[in-house]
């Protein structure tokens, strides 16, 4: 596959220019660029700089800054006012941490905001504050439940982030489906096939042709179905957002950000992180296959990030790079 190799800082400057010429401040631009560039560095290309292509339209649809619409002390409901997803998620993550410091547990529901890509960076931020983070949201209506070919539920990702006393947090971020729809969009842009055994056509057969993709199966049989349904219920019926099949736009969907402090049930907050470090150490001491040693969640992404930074370059598809350059050159381009 033909790729163009670019200095990381060239890509960063181009992404920043897309934001700047559309009126975003440096303070607003920095976290957006950092998030999508980091996803690309980590090899999560479906959630990387591809996401910048949707930004111009999302910027036009903003209505204001996120604000607390309902306050329950340890919990809050935030009206995102169609804020850009990364900025709304930063607001909710900080609020969840603040409430957990005050009450031992913080729970923030968000609706009326754009989606933001990976959950991991926000879970990691909670873990870096010494807390357990749990984040989830309803995704687009592409998930087909078991024994049906009909997309009826969201892809519904979740993230668990665990603090450690002596190392980087353990962070797992995954959709509850065999693939994510951004993979279809990326394959269409790059004129290539989809990975096998992930997406299904209208007749229920797996397809590798992006133009034939109709739905994606929920992973893990009935257990994965239950997890997907749990997220759907918590992020819609519980908080007053719409379920995926009723949503008319991404602004109808719901998100949850939860932070659990070590003081919730214990007097010494640091004990939680110490015991989670011990748990990670125990897992590393287990007998492991020489060909594929045990890897904690997020370690693969961290290794890919480190290698990208060592090289100082990113490889992008020429069509994607051309689209990004066009957006950076014209503030009216969509």
From TrEMBL:
Origin superkingdom: Bacteria
InterPro entries tied to this protein: Mal/L-sulf/L-lact_DH-like_ah (IPR043144), Mal/L-sulf/L-lact_DH-like_NADP (IPR043143), Mal/L-sulfo/L-lacto_DH-like_sf (IPR036111), Malate/L-lactate_DH-like (IPR003767)
Keywords annotated in UniProt: Oxidoreductase
GO molecular function, one term: oxidoreductase activity
SUPFAM superfamilies according to UniProt: L-sulfolactate dehydrogenase-like
Similarity-based family: Belongs to the LDH2/MDH2 oxidoreductase family.
Record's protein name: Lactate dehydrogenase
